[in-house]
Amino acid sequence: MLARQQIRRLARTRALPALSRPYSLPPPPQLERDSHGSSNASSTTHFGYREVPKDAKESLVKDVFSSVASSYDVMNDAMSLGVHRLWKDSFVAHLNPGRADQSRPGMRCIDVAGGTCDIALRILDHARERHADRELSVDVVDINPDMLAEGAKRVRKTMYHNTPQIAFHVGNAQDLGSEAFPDNSYDLYTIAFGIRNCTSVPDVLREAYRVLKPGGTFACLEFSKVTQPLFAQVYDSYSFSVIPLLGTILAGDRDSYQYLVESIRRFPPQEDFARMIQEAGFATGGLWEGKRGAWTDLWGGIASIHTGVKL
Amino acid sequence: MHPAFRHVARLGARALSTGTPTRRPYEGFVPLNTFENAFLAVGSAVMSLANPRRHDMIAALGETTAGPALPRMREHMLASPEGRRVLRERPRVHSNSVDMAALAALPDRTFGRAYVDWLERCGVTPDTRDAVRYIADPELAYVMQRYRECHDFYHCITHMPVSVEYEIALKYFEFANTGLPMTAISALFGPLRLTNAQRDRLFREYVPWALRCGASARPLITVYWEERWEQDIEDLKAELGLWDAPPAKWRKPRAQAGQLKASAPAPASPELPSM
């Protein structure tokens, strides 16, 4: 309730007041070098199609996800007609996590913005079923405690509950913190449908580079640009007409889903994002789609998997 | 662009709800094109039946299916001096705008006193109505909002309590009086939720009264209820062309109504349990 009212109230003003930060988060880093070309912390960023002060975006995103947390899975199924499950299956299959050799220390994975544990559970299941790997562990990180609570609830229904294979942390993808997440500690970093909600994508990539071990893989599943023009038009009509209405009907919340649809449009296209990954220091494939390329399109570019390796 | 066409162009430009900032006709307006309107109508119908506590869905259903009924109601308002006053002044019914303590102090046979007695007896407040969101013309949006907010006045003037049976009877009345499709939808699907005995009584006693009375009475949307607090209620009913329904079964006895005493120190808005 509060989230919806806050969004409506904020929607009426052009310059938003600085919102107080929740106690569990560290303050956001001073943005010295950022893609918006200004080191002033009060400069603006985009929140869907609205311009908002940078420090406000985090809280706004957090509110959106508190509002959608409990109906998140239902909404994802309704909006993508269940297809998001296929995309997540493809994503994890593509990464192929898990080691057959159980004598070595287990693979350490970190799933960021992974609140409801869709990816984390798929990684654990894939390792267990394909490689008989029970040493692999996943650290689930999310900025929003409500989403993590939904995730923990999901995990309680599985065999991974109360095992060292899964752990939950509240954290900010742009600044995970060196004490909780030391340098060079993970083999696999995943972020699925989360990076477009982050204020500064280069900061997220920099943190990913920091926490990954040399040889570790960065993988991102995100909505992207549909290249085929006719399909793009159909997809646009569907996004802007149907999705906010589904949000109104199923979740009683149009604004959060309007934001979700707009945030997809604002995210850089495949090639630009691949360049950003390269700039963060990762080695990627060539700047093309598919075999030996930096990304793989799913369903014509509605979603896209970008990967990179820290050398 | 010629000023006369700017209004039309503005409405046309909002055919797709892309979220780009434009000047909106009123706060909270959500533009819908034909497809979106139909989608929301069907979706809200299904959702209202599935979960009748989703009052926002019931409101959305009413707005998306309003169609030509709202312009017709506006014509009725424009045809009467009182209705024109309502359209000009746009009174809103809200516990902030309705002085409950003053109404409770009115003499016994007045409309104002009957209204607060009715609120008390049913355990409702004037604040339970959703804001209109999906109607493009601000004046028609106001007509819809006014209809929604006056619903309780209709309850009061026809002396109907708020249980499902009487709500449906009142929907038949409203359909005969306003012609809004939503009232017909509620009237058709509402009885599914009743017991056989209740349905029997509804169609035998209340529906004939509702349809006859609603059709022959003056369009109630034209009434400026806030000007008539002090009017004698029987005179008001005679003026509007209403007559009493068959007696209804109330949950709270009449003796418990009218407990807002004028002598007690009146708070700004008395504690009424919300619906």
UniProtKB/TrEMBL annotation, chain A:
Pathway involvement? Cofactor biosynthesis; ubiquinone biosynthesis
Which intervals of the chain are annotated as region Disordered?
18-50
* The protein's name in its UniProt record: 2-methoxy-6-polyprenyl-1,4-benzoquinol methylase, mitochondrial
Q: Which CDD domains match?
A: AdoMet_MTases
UniProt KW S-adenosyl-L-methionine keyword = yes
Pfam families from the UniProt entry: Ubie_methyltran
Question: Top-level EC class, please?
Answer: transferase
> What PANTHER family is this protein classified in?
2-METHOXY-6-POLYPRENYL-1,4-BENZOQUINOL METHYLASE, MITOCHONDRIAL (PTHR43591:SF24), METHYLTRANSFERASE (PTHR43591)
Q: Which organism is it from?
A: Exidia glandulosa HHB12029
Q: SUPFAM superfamilies from the xrefs?
A: S-adenosyl-L-methionine-dependent methyltransferases
Provide ranges: composition bias, Polar residues.
Answer: 37-46
Oligomeric and partner information: Component of a multi-subunit COQ enzyme complex, composed of at least COQ3, COQ4, COQ5, COQ6, COQ7 and COQ9.
Family membership noted in the UniProt record? Belongs to the class I-like SAM-binding methyltransferase superfamily. MenG/UbiE family.
The record's section on InterPro entries has: SAM-dependent_MTases_sf, UbiE/COQ5_MeTrFase, UbiE/COQ5_MeTrFase_CS
Keywords associated with the record: Membrane, Methyltransferase, Mitochondrion, Mitochondrion inner membrane, S-adenosyl-L-methionine, Transferase, Ubiquinone, Ubiquinone biosynthesis
The record's section on HAMAP family has: MenG_UbiE_methyltr (MF_01813)
Q: How does it sit in the membrane?
A: Peripheral membrane protein
Function description: Methyltransferase required for the conversion of 2-polyprenyl-6-methoxy-1,4-benzoquinol (DDMQH2) to 2-polyprenyl-3-methyl-6-methoxy-1,4-benzoquinol (DMQH2).
Amino-acid positions noted as binding S-adenosyl-L-methionine in the UniProt annotation, renumbered to this chain: T116, D142, N172, A173
- Can you say where in the cell this protein is located? Mitochondrion inner membrane
Reaction equations catalysed: a 2-methoxy-6-(all-trans-polyprenyl)benzene-1,4-diol + S-adenosyl-L-methionine = a 5-methoxy-2-methyl-3-(all-trans-polyprenyl)benzene-1,4-diol + S-adenosyl-L-homocysteine + H(+)
Q: Provide any one GO MF term from the record.
A: 2-methoxy-6-polyprenyl-1,4-benzoquinol methyltransferase activity
UniProtKB/TrEMBL annotation, chain B:
Q: Which InterPro entries match?
A: Coq4 (IPR007715), Coq4_euk (IPR027540)
Q: Which GO terms describe its cellular component?
A: extrinsic component of mitochondrial inner membrane
Residues that coordinate or bind Zn(2+): H151, D152, H155, E167
GO MF terms, alphabetically ordered: 4-hydroxy-3-methoxy-5-polyprenylbenzoate decarboxylase activity; zinc ion binding
Assigned keywords, A-Z = Lyase, Membrane, Metal-binding, Mitochondrion, Mitochondrion inner membrane, Ubiquinone biosynthesis, Zinc
Per the record, the pathway is:
Cofactor biosynthesis; ubiquinone biosynthesis
One Pfam family linked to the record: Coq4
Entry membrane topology: Peripheral membrane protein
Its subcellular locations are: Mitochondrion inner membrane
Q: Where is this region: Disordered?
A: 251-275
The UniProt regions of compositional bias labelled Low complexity, in chain numbering, are 262-275
Q: Which cofactor does it need?
A: Zn(2+)
Catalytic activity reported? a 4-hydroxy-3-methoxy-5-(all-trans-polyprenyl)benzoate + H(+) = a 2-methoxy-6-(all-trans-polyprenyl)phenol + CO2
User: Coiled-coil annotation: which residues?
Assistant: none
State its role.
Lyase that catalyzes the C1-decarboxylation of 4-hydroxy-3-methoxy-5-(all-trans-polyprenyl)benzoic acid into 2-methoxy-6-(all-trans-polyprenyl)phenol during ubiquinone biosynthesis.
The similarity annotation says:
Belongs to the COQ4 family.
How does it associate, per the subunit comment? Component of a multi-subunit COQ enzyme complex, composed of at least COQ3, COQ4, COQ5, COQ6, COQ7 and COQ9.
> What is the protein name stated in its UniProt record?
4-hydroxy-3-methoxy-5-polyprenylbenzoate decarboxylase
What organism does the record attribute this protein to? Exidia glandulosa HHB12029
